[in-house]
Amino acid sequence: MLFDLQPKTRREDLYDREAELQEFRDALNLGERLILLLGLRRLGKSSLLNVSLNESGMPYAKIDVRSLYFTHGSIPQEILAKKLLDSLLSTVSSRRAIRLRLEKALESVRGIRLSGLHVEFERKPDLAEILERINSWAEKEGLRVIIAFDEAQYLRLSGIQYDGLIAYAVDNLPALTFALTGSEVGMLYDFLGLENPKKPLFGRYAREITLNRFSREQSVDFLSKGFEEIRVEVHKGELERVVDRLDGITGWLTTYGYLRGVRGLSERDALEELFQRAQALVMEELSSLLSYSRRYGLILKAVALGNESWSDIKEYLEFKGGRINDAKFSLLLKNLTKYGYLTKTGRSYAIPDPVVQEVVRKLSLPQGK
Ligand SMILES: Nc1ncnc2c1ncn2[C@@H]1O[C@H](COP(=O)(O)OP(=O)(O)OP(=O)(O)O)[C@@H](O)[C@H]1O
Ligand SMILES: [Mg+2]
């Protein structure tokens, strides 16, 4: 169902994204080692990743790095290794002979214990060694294995050099392809450092697939197909009004479709509930940023209220939050851009998501720094 709120996993539940799916396939067929799926929050990166993995027919391991980070407060190697192997084993679970040979290949990893489709470690595992074993197994089977990290920029917060590990694998383990998604695009670039001579992945090639918001026409068509699918009749005028407010942000359009079509709310109530949910969600997303500095909130608010230029935003910030020097202010702006909360076009800053913009405009920020 198009209006299912979970990230999609099946092709038939995914609206369009043909070109992106094709590009992912092309990269795999060419044996490319590093694929990046980039895009603002809620545009459908996880969905695209899930469907691409399912359609690939290849064994894969998928790890939701963001949820791992929030569950554990970091990304310990043993937990990453366990998730990776549990996931990989489950994707080959129905191919008995292949699975048994994979288990055999893994048995020689130091400290590993396999029970059914689950993996435990008696000592801290060496992820590089595990990837080597997977690679040699895949080479013998004539397979390619996809290692997918959803929201991979969180790997940078682990204190472990996962960028070095990925670089090692990209250079030396030809049967593996890494597929990484990132909504904090600038942070993902920083973490990988493909263009930073001081980083291990410097100079490596990556296939970049960028998800854009739906066009106006697509957004209306998406809603209309979604309602048709669940046999709910909705006037074209309503669809136009909804797209005026939500733009082509897939996640919001899906939420609207769910509230209006599945829950049966009126247009007004569905939008009201959507904005309530959005407020809670955006506050949660912003909370770590705001706990670091209240100024982040003030900057976003300045932009949400229509201040676009560096100097107008700074003026608002200083009026509300006291003096700040130029370098510090520029750094905060740059960070917000890296996190994807702001976009910069020419000299103008904007909040790229109109729902987030509306939520931020109403944000009441606590006093203090
Ligand atoms: N092409 C699509 N067709 C139908 N539904 C979609 C599509 N893309 C995304 N969705 C829906 O939009 C919502 C957001 O999708 P998803 O979680 O995949 O996006 P995301 O970019 O990974 O978001 P986040 O940045 O929050 O991780 C979900 O409800 C998902 O089901
Ligand atoms: Mg996601």
Write the layout of secondary structure elements.
Elements: H1 18-29, E1 34-38, H2 45-56, E2 60-64, H3 65-72, H4 77-91, H5 96-107, E3 112-115, E4 118-121, H6 127-141, E5 145-150, H7 162-172, E6 176-182, H8 185-192, E7 207-210, H9 216-229, H10 236-246, H11 250-262, H12 267-292, H13 294-304, H14 310-321, H15 326-338, E8 343-345, E9 348-350, H16 354-361
Parallel strand pairs: 1-6, 1-7, 2-5, 5-6
Antiparallel strand pairs: 3-4, 8-9
The structure holds adenosine-5'-triphosphate and magnesium ion.
Residues 2, 4-8, 14-17, 39, 41-47, 183, 250-251, 254 line the site of adenosine-5'-triphosphate.
Throw out a few tags for this protein.
Helicase, Ruva Protein, domain 3, alpha/beta, binds magnesium ion, about 10% strand, two-stranded antiparallel sheet, about 375 residues, binds adenosine-5'-triphosphate, five-stranded parallel sheet, Rossmann fold, 3 domains, Arc Repressor Mutant, subunit A
Helix content: 40-55%
CATH superfamily of the largest domain: P-loop containing nucleotide triphosphate hydrolases
Domains (count)? 3
Radius of gyration of CA atoms, rounded to a whole number? 22 Å
Described by the principal axes of the CA atoms, the overall outline is globular
Number of helical segments?
Answer: 16
Main sheet summary: 5 strands, parallel
User: What ligands can be seen in this structure?
Assistant: adenosine-5'-triphosphate, magnesium ion
Mean pLDDT: 95
CATH class designation of the largest domain: Alpha Beta
**Alpha-carbon distance between the termini?**
46 Å
Strand order of the largest sheet: 2-5-6-1-7
Unreliable runs, pLDDT <50, ≥5 residues?
none
The CATH architecture name of the largest domain reads 3-Layer(aba) Sandwich
Q: Tally of extended strands?
A: 9
Estimate what percentage of residues fall within beta strands.
5-15%
- Return the CATH topology of the largest domain: Rossmann fold
H-E order:
HEHEHHHEEHEHEHEHHHHHHHEEH
What structural category characterises the helix and strand content? alpha/beta
